Amino acid sequence: MPDLRTELCGLELAHPLVNGSGTLDALVAGTLGLSAFVTKTVTPQPRAGNPPQRIAETPAGMVNSIGLANPGIDRFCEHHLPRLAELGVPLVVSLGGWSREEYALAVRRVGALPQVAAIELNVSCPNVDTGCISIGTDHAETRALLERCRAETDLPLLAKLSPSVADVSSIALAAAEGGAAGLVLINTVRGMAIDRDTLRPLLGGGGGGLSGPAVKPVALHAIYHSHAATGLPIVGMGGVAGAQDCIEFLAAGATVVGVGTALFRDPGLPARIVAELPALLAAGGFDTPGQVVGIAHRRDHEPQVELEGAGR
Amino acid sequence: MQPAERRRVAVARVEPVGAYTLLVLRNDGGDVGRPGQFFMLQAVPEPAAAYLPRALSAAWADEHELAFLVEERGAGTRALATAGEVEVLGPLGQGFRLDEGPALLVGGGIGAAILPWLARLMPGRCNALVGFREEAQAVCAALIDADTEVVLEPVLVTRPLAERLPVAASVYACGPGPMLQAVAALCAEHDVPCQLAMEAAMACGFGACYGCAVEIDGEWKRLCVEGPVLEAERILA
Q1: ipTM for the predicted complex
Q2: Which residues of A touch B2 (CB under 8 A)?
Q3: DSSP string for chain A
Q4: Which of A136, A154, A133, A153 has the alpha carbon at shortest distance from A145?
């Protein structure tokens, strides 16, 4: 049977399935069988988040406008992190901010804590007006942010990027040049819902971020091209809803795969994906998930299974 | 700490109840929790236009059946009302604390859906006040096994409530946000204990999505974690 153990930037993971930041509160629901826990993005100051309504259902997905609701870094480090450390899986702390110096201060603080295995720099939240996504949609700002934060910690820095740019792979390259150890692709796609009764924006924040199966092709495209541009390990996410999706994300270039919106529907999904992955890998002739990573880029790969309806 | 496993259950029967639909699921001994807790329900197969499950509190529940009164609002609730099987996650959240002594149940619109179970668990000591927009919605009041007063708009349920207060009873209320605010204020004014079951759009139901934030204790908090049943004073500004 295939061995699911996966290495990501020096982290030893039991298998290649984690959560997307902001899609699970492990202190309420547990880790659901995921191999690492990625926290909701923490900002320097506490944030109440955006006013309701915060979510809208859309075809094959949803738009959210949560607005980085979080307890702030002080409370997070004092009250949340010690309890998260008891979960028994590596912790990836996601950080957000409004300036390079804010990120750097947060990285220095979190990077010094022994419970933290890696840091995600969220430079892609679509639900705030300044900072964050305005950094991660600019090549020079992204490179400079990574360089500045790189100087503050030895922990792996993962840059979480937005697909809402002309060419995410060029931003990924800027993050790599700045010292990112890996990439997290993709954050939600900028979107909006209109209230059918009032004909005004439905979400309290106006716009929001689209997620769910609707964005899977966007995610695959971003992962494929960022893998080609940087060769960095990628935590791939965006519309993952089953084991077959995981295989496709690995093939596009992800080393680890994240689930998010599909988890909202079914907290049993991670365990089911992990149970189904070995047989799916074996059917493709693979011994490890690592053998699938980036295979979509290789011209010498001969599929082991006859593809139905592929005109072969 | 883990949310309950999602399970697939068969629909035992579906009946129109005036403007609403009574959806009765076969339970087969599953945990039903307590009144005011909720379940995430998704029709099988899911309709293309409804990716997310719907959060509903039971009208009543026991080891044999889980009953929900459904107001068809869109593709998700419409699919539930015609489903053969349903994926069920729950019970979730905080339900009602059942006090000793007399109970006054107060419902507005589809919020009346959760009152029958309370009346069943507190037999002989419940009165109910329920308000609806139209006659067809008021048909569901017959499901509440209590001495029930029904009002129709333009009369709001807060009018008979105000007339009865102060009352030597605990109030259990469910309905639209403005109604619950008014009920909370009236009960606070008369020092009557009051619990409210609130509603918010939810994607997950177990604290993951932060979508169901409502103002609780003066801050945005997740209704699925803190509630949906809250002590009334927690929503008073």
Answers
A1: 0.91
A2: 29-30, 32, 267
A3: -----EEETTEEESSSEEEPTTS--HHHH--TT-SSEEPPPB-SS-B--PPSP-EEEETTEEEE-----B--HHHIIIIIHHHHGGGSS-EEEEE--SSHHHHHHHHHHHHT-TTEEEEEEE---TT-SSSTHHHHT-HHHHHHHHHHHHTT-SS-EEEE--S-SS-HHHHHHHHHHHT-SEEEE--PEEE--B-TTT-SBSBTTBSEEEESGGGHHHHHHHHHHHHHHH---EEE-SS--SHHHHHHHHHHT-SEEEE-HHHHH-TTHHHHHHHHHHHHHHHTT-SSGGGTTTGGG-TTPPPSSPPTTS--
A4: A136
Residue B27 near residue B9 (C-beta atoms within 8 A): yes
- Contact with chain B for residue A266, Cβ under 8 A: yes
* DSSP codes of every residue in B165-233: -S-SSEEEEES-HHHHHHHHHHHHHTT--EEEE-----SSSSSSS-TTEEEETTEEEEHHHH-BEEEGG
Q: Does A212 touch chain B (CB under 8 A)?
A: yes
Chain B residues with CB within 8 Å of chain A CB = 1-3, 5-6, 40, 42, 48-53, 76, 87, 89, 200-204, 206-214, 219-220, 225
Residue B2 pLDDT > 60? no
Distance CA B212, CA B222 (A): 5
pLDDT-derived band of residue A301, with 50, 70 and 90 as boundaries?
confident
Name all domains of chain A by residue range, CATH numbers in brackets. 6-51+67-190+210-297 (3.20.20.70)
Q: What are phi and psi of A290, to 5 degrees?
A: -60, -30
Q: Identify the CA nearest to A96 among candidates A59, A124, A115.
A: A124
pTM for this structure?
A: 0.93
Edge-first strand order for the sheet with A234-236 is A17-19, A256-259, A234-236, A182-185, A157-160, A116-122, A91-95, A37-38
Token pair recorded at residue B56:
């509903």
Question: For residue range B35-90, what is the model confidence (pLDDT) as tens digits?
Answer: 999 999 999 988 888 999 999 999 999 999 999 999 998 889 999 999 999 999 99
| Contact list, A86 vs chain B (CB under 8 Å) | none
Q: How far apart are CA B29 and CA B10, in angstroms?
A: 13
Domains of chain B, start order: 7-92 (2.40.30.10), 103-235 (3.40.50.80)
Instruction: Pick the closest to residue A153 from A177, A118, A115, A102 (CA basis).
Output: A118
Given a cut of 90, is residue A277 above it in pLDDT? yes
Contact B1 A29 (CB under 8 A): yes
For residue B201, give the nearest of B180, B222, B231 by alpha carbon: B222
Look at residue A299 in the predicted model and tell me its pLDDT. 80
A270 inside 8 A of chain B by CB: no
Rounded to a whole number of angstroms, the distance from the CA of B168 to the nearest CA of chain A is 36
Per-residue pLDDT, A312: 37
